[in-house]
Specification:
Cytochrome Bc1 Complex, Chain D, domain 2, two-stranded antiparallel sheet, binds heme C
Length: 399
């Protein structure tokens, strides 16, 4: 009973002051400010008192306010293979909770077996990015991005190409569970069984995939025993001018392409960290040259978004193309100031890439510094996030 009451209150609150383009007036004065904040934090899976640590909810487009009912629908859709044309894959096939909503394939492998060029991103705190995909400044919201894995045909992921759409939408329209979920999520919409509303619900669910309960977070929030000495040394190195990691992996999300509901700006950055230098002219492998694929400017070769490093221990292999297996290799890259590939089609010295970021220099880490950095990166793992039943596969819970 209590559970349903809370559900009701959450719905009421979320539609009164998160709804309608962010109006902030709450009529019910019985609900104090602190309770409002607690309800918001609960809705987004943010820690209690998150605001005291500058953790605010993600930005939300005006035409897609968050509600509990949309989160619920989005969760079912995310885990349902009905959303692929041949009913073999769901979003969660490539974004698994136990791997912080990433998988362990080098690149994405779609429902018909086609391979993409890129490694599936972790969806940890995904609502906070200012651009989506590894390097595309035009994809500024989840809503813009999410249609791509559903309908894209190069490569095929879920494979809901034009000819398949009607049949796929009918699967939801004719299913009793979904009739209920769609009606509750979009009560004012005559026909919500469209890709537009499916995307809206998915985006809303994705905005609740928030992880702020790692050992590092507990340390920052005052538990001075949460990190050991090596992890603390690693943290100081990471945040300091020797290792310089923080220049690109900064803020609450360890990515410089981050924003939230309180930020006035939406900074977008793309960096070349010296993974390749094919033929000595700064090239990366064909068709996978990052920002260059969009702008065709040579100086944009090899530039990618700095991903969040939260839960990084769980999301191997690494980099836009999955070409690094371990965190140790990445720390070595930074020690050496880039990656040197001796032979093969991608041979070249990334350390001399003409478009290398100024922050990527020879750091010559000692073995202790390498161990400390590694220990710190692993302290960003959030066990509560990967086991949280609120964001887990609802079909598994039904069984
Ligand atoms: C076949 C595997 C596969 C499936 C299925 C899949 N994805 Fe992905 N996802 C990827 C890959 C690969 C990328 C990297 C895309 C790129 O940069 O080109 C990605 C990237 C993303 C991103 C961007 C994250 C960021 O940091 O930029 C989001 C959001 C996302 N996927 C959500 C979804 C949702 C929602 C679904 C279901 C509708 C889905 N994905 C289905 C493989 C998959
Ligand atoms: C100049 C900006 C910049 C600096 C400085 C930087 N990084 Fe990164 N980092 C990036 C970018 C961009 C990527 C993705 C590159 C790619 O895929 O081509 C990345 C990727 C990573 C990844 C893999 C992420 C994933 O999901 O695959 C790890 C781990 C990482 N960096 C750790 C570090 C550490 C540790 C330091 C400091 C020693 C550091 N970075 C310094 C920009 C930076």
């Amino acid at each position: 009973m209590k559970k349903y009451f809370i559900f009701f209150i959450l719905t009421l609150i979320s539609t009164t002051f998160l709804g309608c383009g962010g109006g902030t007036s709450v009529n019910d004065t019985a609900i104090s400010n602190s309770t409002e904040t607690e309800i918001i934090n609960e809705l987004f899976n943010l820690p209690q008192n998150a605001q005291n640590y500058s953790i605010f909810p993600p930005k939300i487009p005006q035409d897609n306010p968050i509600t509990n009912e949309k989160i619920e629908l989005g969760k079912y859709l995310f885990y349902d293979t009905k959303l692929s044309a041949n009913q073999t894959q769901s979003c969660s096939s490539c974004h698994l909770q136990k791997s912080a909503f990433s998988d362990h394939n080098k690149v994405g492998i779609g429902s018909t077996g086609e391979h993409s060029l890129r490694n599936p991103n972790s969806l940890t705190n995904t609502g906070y990015y200012t651009s989506y995909s590894w390097a595309n400044p035009a994809l500024t919201t989840l809503e813009r991005f999410i249609i791509l894995p559903i309908t894209g045909d190069d490569p095929i992921e879920l494979g809901v190409v034009d000819e398949e759409q009607e049949e796929v939408l009918n699967r939801f329209k004719l299913d009793e569970r979904y009739q209920n979920l769609f009606t509750k999520a979009f009560p004012d919409v005559e026909n919500p069984y469209t890709l537009e509303y499916i995307v809206k619900a998915l985006a809303t669910f994705l905005r609740t995939l928030n992880s702020f309960n790692s050992k590092y977070d507990k340390y920052i929030r005052g538990d001075k025993t949460a990190l050991n000495e090596s992890e603390i040394r690693g943290m100081n190195l990471f945040m300091g001018e020797k290792a310089e990691c923080f220049h690109c992996h900064d803020g609450i999300n360890f990515s410089d392409s981050t924003t939230n509901e309180k930020s006035f700006s939406n900074p977008q950055f793309f960096h070349n960290i010296g993974l390749y230098n094919i033929n000595g002219i700064g090239s990366y492998p064909d068709l996978n040259q990052g920002l260059f694929e969009i702008t065709q400017q040579n100086s944009d070769k090899g530039k990618f978004k700095a991903p969040s490093l939260r839960n990084i221990e769980l999301t191997f292999p690494y980099m836009h193309d999955g070409s690094m297996e371990t965190l140790e290799e990445i720390i070595d890259l930074h020690s050496n100031g880039g990656r040197y590939i001796e032979s093969g089609i991608n041979a070249g010295d990334g350390r001399n890439n003409p478009y290398l970021s100024d922050f990527i220099t020879v750091k010559n880490f000692t073995q202790e510094e390498k161990d400390d950095l590694l220990a710190f990166l692993k302290s960003l793992t959030d066990e509560e996030f990967i086991t949280n039943q609120k964001i887990a596969n609802p079909f598994a819970q039904d069984e």
